[in-house]
Amino acid sequence: MLDLEDFSIPPPPILATALSGTGIANLPNQRHKIVAKNGANFTIMVCGESGVGKTTFVNTLFTTTIKEPKNLSKRHMKSPSSKTVQIQITKADTPGFGDYVNNRHSWIPIVDFIDDQHEKYMRQEQQPCRKGVIDMRVHACLYFIKPTGHTLNPLDIEVMKKLGSRVNLIPVVAKADTLTPTNLEKFKQNIREVIAAQNIQVYTCPIESDDENVTRRNHNIMTALPFAVIGSTQDVVTFDGRKVKGREYAWGVAEVENDLHCDFKKLRSLLIRTHMLDLITTTEEVHYENYRQTQMETRKFGEPRTEPNENAKFKEDEEALRMRFTEQVKSEEVRFRQWERQLLNERDRLHKELEAQGEKVKELQSELEAYYHHQRDKSVRK
Protein backbone atom coordinates (compact mmCIF):
# COMPACT_ATOMS: atom_id res chain seq x y z
CA MET A 1 0.00 0.00 0.00
CA LEU A 2 1.44 3.33 -1.03
CA ASP A 3 0.45 6.72 0.28
CA LEU A 4 1.30 9.88 -1.56
CA GLU A 5 1.02 13.44 -0.40
CA ASP A 6 1.62 16.58 -2.43
CA PHE A 7 2.61 19.81 -0.79
CA SER A 8 2.85 23.00 -2.86
CA ILE A 9 4.43 25.81 -0.90
CA PRO A 10 5.30 29.43 -1.58
CA PRO A 11 9.02 30.15 -1.35
CA PRO A 12 10.53 31.22 1.94
CA PRO A 13 11.66 34.83 2.27
CA ILE A 14 14.86 35.50 0.34
CA LEU A 15 16.99 38.36 1.53
CA ALA A 16 18.43 40.42 -1.29
CA THR A 17 21.76 42.04 -0.53
CA ALA A 18 22.85 45.11 -2.41
CA LEU A 19 26.15 44.15 -4.02
CA SER A 20 28.38 46.33 -6.10
CA GLY A 21 29.78 45.15 -9.41
CA THR A 22 28.55 44.47 -12.88
CA GLY A 23 29.17 41.91 -15.60
CA ILE A 24 29.09 38.12 -15.71
CA ALA A 25 30.50 37.72 -12.21
CA ASN A 26 27.45 39.51 -10.82
CA LEU A 27 24.85 37.40 -12.71
CA PRO A 28 24.17 35.04 -9.76
CA ASN A 29 23.41 38.05 -7.59
CA GLN A 30 21.11 39.48 -10.25
CA ARG A 31 19.31 36.17 -10.52
CA HIS A 32 18.99 36.09 -6.74
CA LYS A 33 17.35 39.51 -6.81
CA ILE A 34 14.95 38.49 -9.58
CA VAL A 35 13.81 35.40 -7.68
CA ALA A 36 13.53 37.40 -4.46
CA LYS A 37 11.36 39.95 -6.24
CA ASN A 38 9.11 37.64 -8.28
CA GLY A 39 9.06 34.62 -5.99
CA ALA A 40 8.57 31.06 -7.22
CA ASN A 41 6.27 28.11 -6.71
CA PHE A 42 7.85 25.08 -5.06
CA THR A 43 6.01 21.78 -4.90
CA ILE A 44 7.10 18.78 -2.83
CA MET A 45 5.59 15.34 -3.30
CA VAL A 46 5.89 12.81 -0.48
CA CYS A 47 5.13 9.16 -1.19
CA GLY A 48 5.75 5.78 0.35
CA GLU A 49 4.00 2.99 2.19
CA SER A 50 1.33 3.80 4.72
CA GLY A 51 2.57 4.40 8.25
CA VAL A 52 6.18 5.37 7.50
CA GLY A 53 5.78 8.86 8.97
CA LYS A 54 5.28 11.10 5.94
CA THR A 55 2.83 13.45 7.65
CA THR A 56 4.99 13.72 10.76
CA PHE A 57 8.03 14.47 8.63
CA VAL A 58 6.30 17.28 6.73
CA ASN A 59 4.99 18.80 9.95
CA THR A 60 8.50 18.55 11.39
CA LEU A 61 10.07 20.04 8.26
CA PHE A 62 7.96 23.19 8.46
CA THR A 63 7.63 23.20 12.29
CA THR A 64 3.86 23.48 12.10
CA THR A 65 0.84 21.23 11.77
CA ILE A 66 0.40 21.34 8.01
CA LYS A 67 -1.58 18.13 7.97
CA GLU A 68 -3.43 16.52 10.85
CA PRO A 69 -2.20 13.01 11.68
CA LYS A 70 -4.55 10.14 10.88
CA ASN A 71 -6.70 8.56 13.56
CA LEU A 72 -5.19 5.07 13.57
CA SER A 73 -8.00 3.73 15.77
CA LYS A 74 -10.43 4.30 12.88
CA ARG A 75 -8.20 2.87 10.15
CA HIS A 76 -9.87 -0.59 10.39
CA MET A 77 -13.29 1.05 9.91
CA LYS A 78 -12.48 2.19 6.36
CA SER A 79 -14.47 0.49 3.68
CA PRO A 80 -12.76 -0.92 0.56
CA SER A 81 -14.33 1.88 -1.49
CA SER A 82 -12.40 4.45 0.56
CA LYS A 83 -9.10 3.00 -0.65
CA THR A 84 -9.39 4.14 -4.24
CA VAL A 85 -6.26 5.68 -5.70
CA GLN A 86 -6.75 9.43 -5.89
CA ILE A 87 -4.61 12.53 -5.49
CA GLN A 88 -6.06 15.61 -3.86
CA ILE A 89 -4.28 18.94 -3.70
CA THR A 90 -5.00 21.65 -1.14
CA LYS A 91 -3.46 25.09 -1.48
CA ALA A 92 -2.61 27.41 1.37
CA ASP A 93 -0.77 30.68 1.88
CA THR A 94 1.27 29.15 4.67
CA PRO A 95 4.09 26.73 3.82
CA GLY A 96 2.85 23.21 3.18
CA PHE A 97 -0.32 21.26 2.63
CA GLY A 98 -1.34 17.85 1.30
CA ASP A 99 -3.56 14.86 1.58
CA TYR A 100 -3.45 11.09 1.82
CA VAL A 101 -3.45 8.76 -1.18
CA ASN A 102 -3.69 4.99 -1.27
CA ASN A 103 -1.48 3.61 -4.02
CA ARG A 104 -1.85 -0.06 -3.17
CA HIS A 105 -2.33 -1.26 -6.71
CA SER A 106 0.58 0.26 -8.63
CA TRP A 107 2.73 3.26 -9.42
CA ILE A 108 0.44 4.42 -12.25
CA PRO A 109 -1.51 7.15 -10.34
CA ILE A 110 1.70 8.79 -9.10
CA VAL A 111 3.25 8.87 -12.57
CA ASP A 112 -0.01 10.07 -14.12
CA PHE A 113 -0.20 12.89 -11.58
CA ILE A 114 3.33 14.12 -12.33
CA ASP A 115 2.76 13.89 -16.09
CA ASP A 116 -0.57 15.67 -15.71
CA GLN A 117 1.09 18.66 -14.05
CA HIS A 118 3.58 18.89 -16.93
CA GLU A 119 0.69 18.61 -19.38
CA LYS A 120 -1.32 21.38 -17.73
CA TYR A 121 1.68 23.69 -17.70
CA MET A 122 2.50 22.92 -21.36
CA ARG A 123 -1.07 23.65 -22.47
CA GLN A 124 -1.00 26.98 -20.65
CA GLU A 125 2.25 27.84 -22.44
CA GLN A 126 0.53 27.21 -25.77
CA GLN A 127 -2.15 29.83 -25.09
CA PRO A 128 -1.95 33.33 -26.67
CA CYS A 129 -1.91 34.94 -23.23
CA ARG A 130 0.41 33.33 -20.69
CA LYS A 131 0.00 35.70 -17.78
CA GLY A 132 -1.06 34.13 -14.52
CA VAL A 133 0.16 30.65 -15.48
CA ILE A 134 -0.55 28.16 -12.70
CA ASP A 135 2.52 26.01 -12.08
CA MET A 136 1.92 22.85 -10.06
CA ARG A 137 4.84 20.87 -11.47
CA VAL A 138 6.47 18.67 -8.84
CA HIS A 139 9.98 19.93 -8.07
CA ALA A 140 11.01 17.29 -5.55
CA CYS A 141 9.63 13.85 -4.75
CA LEU A 142 10.60 12.35 -1.41
CA TYR A 143 10.22 8.58 -1.61
CA PHE A 144 10.02 7.11 1.89
CA ILE A 145 11.60 3.68 2.28
CA LYS A 146 10.47 1.37 5.04
CA PRO A 147 13.31 0.73 7.55
CA THR A 148 13.49 -3.04 7.06
CA GLY A 149 17.26 -3.13 7.41
CA HIS A 150 17.62 -5.28 4.27
CA THR A 151 17.25 -3.60 0.88
CA LEU A 152 14.67 -2.19 -1.54
CA ASN A 153 11.70 -4.41 -2.32
CA PRO A 154 10.50 -4.94 -5.93
CA LEU A 155 7.73 -2.34 -5.56
CA ASP A 156 10.21 0.28 -4.35
CA ILE A 157 12.48 -0.42 -7.31
CA GLU A 158 9.64 -0.23 -9.83
CA VAL A 159 8.21 3.01 -8.42
CA MET A 160 11.60 4.70 -8.10
CA LYS A 161 12.50 3.80 -11.70
CA LYS A 162 9.33 5.42 -12.99
CA LEU A 163 9.69 8.50 -10.77
CA GLY A 164 13.39 9.07 -11.38
CA SER A 165 12.86 9.72 -15.07
CA ARG A 166 10.11 12.30 -14.40
CA VAL A 167 10.96 14.20 -11.24
CA ASN A 168 13.80 15.07 -8.87
CA LEU A 169 13.69 11.86 -6.84
CA ILE A 170 15.10 11.95 -3.32
CA PRO A 171 15.10 8.60 -1.45
CA VAL A 172 14.48 8.83 2.28
CA VAL A 173 14.85 6.13 4.93
CA ALA A 174 11.90 6.57 7.28
CA LYS A 175 12.02 6.18 11.06
CA ALA A 176 15.79 5.99 11.26
CA ASP A 177 15.61 5.67 15.05
CA THR A 178 14.29 2.11 14.68
CA LEU A 179 17.70 0.91 13.41
CA THR A 180 21.06 0.86 15.14
CA PRO A 181 23.73 3.13 13.62
CA THR A 182 25.58 0.09 12.20
CA ASN A 183 22.45 -1.47 10.68
CA LEU A 184 21.31 1.91 9.36
CA GLU A 185 24.60 2.54 7.55
CA LYS A 186 24.55 -0.99 6.11
CA PHE A 187 20.93 -0.49 5.00
CA LYS A 188 21.81 2.79 3.28
CA GLN A 189 24.75 1.14 1.52
CA ASN A 190 22.48 -1.69 0.28
CA ILE A 191 20.06 0.91 -1.08
CA ARG A 192 22.86 2.79 -2.85
CA GLU A 193 24.05 -0.44 -4.46
CA VAL A 194 20.55 -1.30 -5.70
CA ILE A 195 20.07 2.22 -7.05
CA ALA A 196 23.32 1.91 -9.00
CA ALA A 197 22.63 -1.64 -10.21
CA GLN A 198 19.06 -0.82 -11.32
CA ASN A 199 20.16 2.47 -12.91
CA ILE A 200 17.61 4.45 -10.88
CA GLN A 201 17.90 8.20 -11.45
CA VAL A 202 18.03 10.18 -8.21
CA TYR A 203 18.56 13.90 -7.70
CA THR A 204 22.19 14.98 -7.39
CA CYS A 205 22.87 18.56 -6.44
CA PRO A 206 25.82 20.47 -7.91
CA ILE A 207 28.93 19.70 -5.86
CA GLU A 208 31.73 21.94 -7.09
CA SER A 209 31.80 25.62 -6.15
CA ASP A 210 34.29 28.46 -6.00
CA ASP A 211 33.70 28.50 -2.27
CA GLU A 212 35.41 25.54 -0.57
CA ASN A 213 32.91 25.63 2.29
CA VAL A 214 30.01 25.33 -0.16
CA THR A 215 31.73 22.45 -1.97
CA ARG A 216 32.32 20.68 1.34
CA ARG A 217 28.70 21.26 2.40
CA ASN A 218 27.33 19.92 -0.91
CA HIS A 219 29.58 16.88 -0.68
CA ASN A 220 28.40 16.13 2.86
CA ILE A 221 24.77 16.41 1.76
CA MET A 222 25.19 14.03 -1.17
CA THR A 223 27.17 11.43 0.78
CA ALA A 224 24.20 11.13 3.15
CA LEU A 225 21.94 9.87 0.32
CA PRO A 226 19.54 8.15 0.99
CA PHE A 227 18.64 10.51 3.81
CA ALA A 228 17.79 8.80 7.09
CA VAL A 229 15.25 10.93 8.96
CA ILE A 230 13.44 11.06 12.26
CA GLY A 231 10.16 12.94 12.42
CA SER A 232 8.72 14.44 15.59
CA THR A 233 6.88 17.63 16.51
CA GLN A 234 7.20 16.94 20.23
CA ASP A 235 9.62 18.77 22.52
CA VAL A 236 11.62 16.44 24.78
CA VAL A 237 14.33 17.06 27.34
CA THR A 238 17.70 15.35 26.98
CA PHE A 239 19.75 13.95 29.84
CA ASP A 240 21.91 17.07 29.82
CA GLY A 241 18.85 19.34 30.13
CA ARG A 242 18.47 20.52 26.50
CA LYS A 243 14.96 20.95 25.07
CA VAL A 244 14.87 19.50 21.54
CA LYS A 245 12.53 18.05 18.94
CA GLY A 246 12.78 14.30 19.10
CA ARG A 247 11.56 10.99 20.44
CA GLU A 248 12.14 9.84 23.97
CA TYR A 249 13.09 6.26 24.79
CA ALA A 250 14.20 4.41 27.89
CA TRP A 251 17.80 4.50 26.65
CA GLY A 252 17.76 8.18 25.75
CA VAL A 253 16.47 10.69 23.21
CA ALA A 254 16.59 10.44 19.41
CA GLU A 255 17.06 14.05 18.30
CA VAL A 256 15.61 15.27 15.00
CA GLU A 257 18.20 17.99 14.43
CA ASN A 258 21.26 16.05 15.54
CA ASP A 259 23.52 14.99 12.65
CA LEU A 260 24.79 12.10 14.77
CA HIS A 261 21.25 10.71 14.99
CA CYS A 262 19.81 11.33 11.49
CA ASP A 263 20.13 13.35 8.27
CA PHE A 264 17.11 15.60 8.84
CA LYS A 265 19.10 18.84 8.85
CA LYS A 266 20.90 17.91 5.62
CA LEU A 267 17.63 17.09 3.87
CA ARG A 268 15.98 20.27 5.11
CA SER A 269 18.96 22.29 3.90
CA LEU A 270 18.77 20.61 0.49
CA LEU A 271 15.05 21.28 0.10
CA ILE A 272 14.42 24.76 1.43
CA ARG A 273 17.73 26.44 2.13
CA THR A 274 20.55 25.69 -0.29
CA HIS A 275 19.16 23.95 -3.38
CA MET A 276 15.52 24.95 -3.78
CA LEU A 277 16.33 27.04 -6.85
CA ASP A 278 18.35 24.20 -8.38
CA LEU A 279 15.42 21.82 -7.85
CA ILE A 280 13.12 24.28 -9.62
CA THR A 281 15.62 24.84 -12.45
CA THR A 282 16.24 21.11 -12.93
CA THR A 283 12.51 20.50 -13.14
CA GLU A 284 12.15 23.24 -15.75
CA GLU A 285 15.19 22.47 -17.88
CA VAL A 286 15.35 18.68 -17.63
CA HIS A 287 12.17 16.90 -16.56
CA TYR A 288 9.61 19.27 -18.03
CA GLU A 289 11.66 19.71 -21.19
CA ASN A 290 11.93 15.93 -21.62
CA TYR A 291 8.16 15.62 -21.26
CA ARG A 292 7.47 18.49 -23.65
CA GLN A 293 9.87 17.15 -26.27
CA THR A 294 8.41 13.64 -26.08
CA GLN A 295 4.86 14.94 -26.43
CA MET A 296 5.71 17.31 -29.28
CA GLU A 297 7.29 14.43 -31.21
CA THR A 298 4.22 12.21 -30.91
CA ARG A 299 1.36 14.73 -31.04
CA LYS A 300 0.17 17.49 -33.29
CA PHE A 301 0.06 21.02 -31.89
CA GLY A 302 -3.00 21.43 -29.67
CA GLU A 303 -3.87 17.75 -29.78
CA PRO A 304 -4.94 16.45 -26.35
CA ARG A 305 -2.86 13.87 -24.53
CA THR A 306 -4.15 10.34 -24.25
CA GLU A 307 -6.12 10.15 -21.02
CA PRO A 308 -4.25 8.27 -18.30
CA ASN A 309 -5.77 5.25 -16.64
CA GLU A 310 -7.63 6.76 -13.67
CA ASN A 311 -7.88 3.52 -11.71
CA ALA A 312 -4.87 1.24 -11.61
CA LYS A 313 -6.94 -1.65 -10.30
CA PHE A 314 -9.03 -1.64 -13.49
CA LYS A 315 -5.83 -1.88 -15.51
CA GLU A 316 -4.58 -4.75 -13.37
CA ASP A 317 -7.92 -6.55 -13.72
CA GLU A 318 -7.89 -5.94 -17.46
CA GLU A 319 -4.36 -7.31 -17.71
CA ALA A 320 -5.33 -10.33 -15.61
CA LEU A 321 -8.34 -11.02 -17.83
CA ARG A 322 -6.19 -10.65 -20.93
CA MET A 323 -3.63 -13.09 -19.56
CA ARG A 324 -6.37 -15.53 -18.56
CA PHE A 325 -7.93 -15.30 -22.01
CA THR A 326 -4.53 -15.84 -23.62
CA GLU A 327 -3.91 -18.91 -21.45
CA GLN A 328 -7.33 -20.31 -22.31
CA VAL A 329 -6.72 -19.75 -26.03
CA LYS A 330 -3.35 -21.49 -25.75
CA SER A 331 -4.96 -24.36 -23.85
CA GLU A 332 -7.69 -24.72 -26.46
CA GLU A 333 -5.11 -24.60 -29.23
CA VAL A 334 -3.16 -27.43 -27.57
CA ARG A 335 -6.34 -29.46 -27.15
CA PHE A 336 -7.30 -28.80 -30.78
CA ARG A 337 -3.86 -29.87 -32.01
CA GLN A 338 -4.09 -33.09 -30.02
CA TRP A 339 -7.57 -33.78 -31.38
CA GLU A 340 -6.39 -32.98 -34.93
CA ARG A 341 -3.41 -35.31 -34.48
CA GLN A 342 -5.72 -38.06 -33.26
CA LEU A 343 -8.00 -37.58 -36.28
CA LEU A 344 -5.04 -37.73 -38.65
CA ASN A 345 -3.75 -40.89 -36.98
CA GLU A 346 -7.21 -42.44 -37.18
CA ARG A 347 -7.48 -41.46 -40.85
CA ASP A 348 -4.11 -43.02 -41.61
CA ARG A 349 -5.11 -46.21 -39.79
CA LEU A 350 -8.38 -46.45 -41.71
CA HIS A 351 -6.58 -45.80 -45.00
CA LYS A 352 -4.14 -48.59 -44.23
CA GLU A 353 -6.99 -50.95 -43.31
CA LEU A 354 -8.83 -49.98 -46.48
CA GLU A 355 -5.75 -50.64 -48.57
CA ALA A 356 -5.30 -54.00 -46.85
CA GLN A 357 -8.93 -54.92 -47.53
CA GLY A 358 -8.49 -53.80 -51.14
CA GLU A 359 -5.50 -56.10 -51.53
CA LYS A 360 -7.51 -59.01 -50.10
CA VAL A 361 -10.35 -58.26 -52.53
CA LYS A 362 -7.89 -58.28 -55.42
CA GLU A 363 -6.47 -61.61 -54.25
CA LEU A 364 -9.97 -63.08 -54.00
CA GLN A 365 -10.81 -61.77 -57.46
CA SER A 366 -7.63 -63.35 -58.85
CA GLU A 367 -8.42 -66.64 -57.17
CA LEU A 368 -12.00 -66.50 -58.46
CA GLU A 369 -10.86 -65.77 -62.02
CA ALA A 370 -8.29 -68.59 -61.81
CA TYR A 371 -11.03 -70.94 -60.63
CA TYR A 372 -13.35 -69.93 -63.51
CA HIS A 373 -10.54 -70.46 -66.05
CA HIS A 374 -9.76 -73.83 -64.55
CA GLN A 375 -13.41 -74.96 -64.69
CA ARG A 376 -13.81 -73.69 -68.26
CA ASP A 377 -10.69 -75.47 -69.41
CA LYS A 378 -11.84 -78.60 -67.68
CA SER A 379 -15.26 -78.52 -69.44
CA VAL A 380 -13.63 -77.94 -72.83
CA ARG A 381 -11.42 -81.05 -72.47
CA LYS A 382 -14.46 -83.14 -71.75
From TrEMBL:
Q: Does the keyword Cytoplasm apply?
A: no
Against InterPro entries, the record matches this protein to: G_SEPTIN_dom (IPR030379), P-loop_NTPase (IPR027417), Septin (IPR016491), Sigma_54_int_dom_ATP-bd_1 (IPR025662)
Q: Where is the composition biased (Basic and acidic residues)?
A: 297-315
Q: Name one GO molecular function term.
A: GTP binding
The record's keywords, sorted A to Z, are: Cell cycle, Cell division, Coiled coil, GTP-binding, Nucleotide-binding
Location of the Septin-type G domain = 38-298
Set out the biological process GO terms recorded for this chain's protein. Answer: mitotic cytokinesis
Segments of this protein annotated with the region Disordered: 295-315
Indicate the segments annotated as coiled coil, or none if absent. Answer: 340-367
Is Cell division among this UniProt entry's keywords?
Answer: yes
| Gene Ontology cellular component terms for the protein in this record | cleavage apparatus septin structure; septin complex
Recorded family membership: Belongs to the TRAFAC class TrmE-Era-EngA-EngB-Septin-like GTPase superfamily. Septin GTPase family.
What is this protein's record name? Septin-type G domain-containing protein
Q: Which organism is it from?
A: Rhizopus oryzae (Mucormycosis agent)
Organismal lineage: Eukaryota, Fungi, Fungi incertae sedis, Mucoromycota, Mucoromycotina
